[in-house]
Amino acid sequence: MSSSIKSTNIVEVHHHVTCEARADLNRHRGGVLWLTGLSGSGKSTIAMELERQLFNKRWQVYVLDGDNVRHGLCSDLGFSPGDRTENIRRVGEVAHLFAKAGLLVVTAFISPYRADRERVRQMGPAQFHEIHVATPLDVCEQRDPKGLYEKARRGEIPDFTGISAPYEPPEAPELRLNAENCTIDRTLTTLVAYVERTFALPSDQVSVGHVAS
Amino acid sequence: MSSSIKSTNIVEVHHHVTCEARADLNRHRGGVLWLTGLSGSGKSTIAMELERQLFNKRWQVYVLDGDNVRHGLCSDLGFSPGDRTENIRRVGEVAHLFAKAGLLVVTAFISPYRADRERVRQMGPAQFHEIHVATPLDVCEQRDPKGLYEKARRGEIPDFTGISAPYEPPEAPELRLNAENCTIDRTLTTLVAYVERTFALPSDQVSVGHVAS
C-alpha cells in the first residue's frame, strides 16, 4: 500500500486545546510506549498490567494491541511483509493521535521490522519510547501460551516471526526488559518507574485550575 | 479494500481497566459524536469550539478531523467512492478506540454516504451520536471559506460533495444543527447541553477514589 499523500485540498483546522494544557490537566505528558518482541515474550501481559497500575495512579492510559486492532482498523490486513508494514504504519498513526489527545499509549505488537518501528518514531511530535521485551526465542517457544509455535513448527502458520519470518531486535531501545530473568512484579516496578520519570509532570508544574484560553 | 477479517490466530487479551472505571475517573462516559455535513457547513469550527469548551470543564475530549487523519492514517486514500468508504471505516474504528479509552471523540468529516455512517454506528459498543450540521448547500457555497466550491464549479476538483458527488443527509440523526439560523455561540450552547445530558455521569455516581481492582 502506498504511503504517498493522495489527499489534496485539505485545509488545516487547529485545535484550540494545546498539548501543554492537556498535560497540565492529566498531570503527565502524552506519549507512545512502543513494546516490541517475539510472540509469547510477554508484551500484552506487561502492557495490560502497566495500564492497570498507571490507571490506578489516575493516568490517562490505553493499550493498543493486536486484538483490538487486527479485528477492527486492520481487519483487511494479513501477515505478509507488506501487510505487516501497513499494519504498523496505521497503528503508529493512531498511537500518535492518542498521544496528541494527551494519553500515554502503550502498544503491544511484535512489530518485527526495524524500519517500520523507526518510521513510527518519526511520525509525530509526541515522545516515542521503544521498549524491547527481550525474552529469547527458546523461552517464548517453551512457554508457547497460545500454542502458536507448535503450529508454526508444523508449518500450519506461514510467516511466523522467529520461525519462518524474521525478527529484527532494536539496536538502541530506550529500555530493554529481560523479562525471563524477572518476575512480572519486578518488571512492572521497573517500567512504572521509567514511565513516571519520563512522562509525569514535576509536581510544581501542576496547576489544577488551568484552562485553555 | 476488503473489510473481511484476514487476521487469524489472534488471541484476545483483556484490559484490566473497565469502561465504567474510566467513566468514573473522567466523570463522563466515552462516546462518539459524529458530525456530518457539507464542506463549509461549519463542522470543524463547531467541533474545535466544542472541544475547547468541554476541555475547560475538564472533559477528556478530542477532535478527529480531515486534517489530522488525511495527512496521516488515511494518507494513502483519495476521494473516490471506495476510498471515501475506507476513510470513514478507519476513522470509525479509531473513534471507537478513543471511546473505549474513555474519551468523548468528536469527528468532523463530510462522510457523505448513509451506509458508511451506519456501519460506524454498528462498529462498537460505544454510544454513537450522529449530529447533522444541516447548513444548506447554497449557504455553504456562498461562504466557501476555502474557495473549494469555486474550484469545484470550474471542474478543478473532481468528486466534490454537493457539486459532482452525492451527499446523503441523515434521516434520523440524534441531533440536527441548523447552524445557518444560529450564531456559533447559540449552536455551541445547544451542543454542550446535549453532550452533558447524554455523556456526563450524574454527580451521585461520582466516586473520585475509585480504582480498578
Automatic annotation (TrEMBL), chains A, B:
Q: In which pathway does it act?
A: Sulfur metabolism; hydrogen sulfide biosynthesis; sulfite from sulfate: step 2/3
Q: Which residues form the APS kinase domain?
A: 30-177
The record's catalysed reaction(s) read: adenosine 5'-phosphosulfate + ATP = 3'-phosphoadenylyl sulfate + ADP + H(+)
Note the superkingdom of the native organism: Bacteria
Q: Which GO terms describe its molecular function?
A: adenylylsulfate kinase activity; ATP binding; sulfate adenylyltransferase (ATP) activity
- Tell me the InterPro entries matching this sequence: APS, APS_kinase_dom, P-loop_NTPase, Sulf_AdTrans/APS_kinase
Q: Which UniProt keywords apply?
A: ATP-binding, Kinase, Nucleotide-binding, Phosphoprotein, Transferase
Q: Which Gene3D superfamilies match?
A: P-loop containing nucleotide triphosphate hydrolases
Q: Span of the secretion signal?
A: none
| Binding locations of ATP | G37, L38, S39, G40, S41, G42, K43, S44
Q: What is its EC number?
A: 2.7.1.25
The UniProt record lists the keyword NADP = no
Catalytic site residues?
A: S111 (phosphoserine intermediate)
GO term, biological process aspect, one: hydrogen sulfide biosynthetic process
Q: So what does this one do? A: Catalyzes the synthesis of activated sulfate.
Q: List the protein's name.
A: Adenylyl-sulfate kinase
Q: Taxonomy-wise, where does this protein's organism fall, top ranks first?
A: Bacteria, Pseudomonadati, Pseudomonadota, Alphaproteobacteria, Rhodospirillales
Name the gene behind this protein: cysC
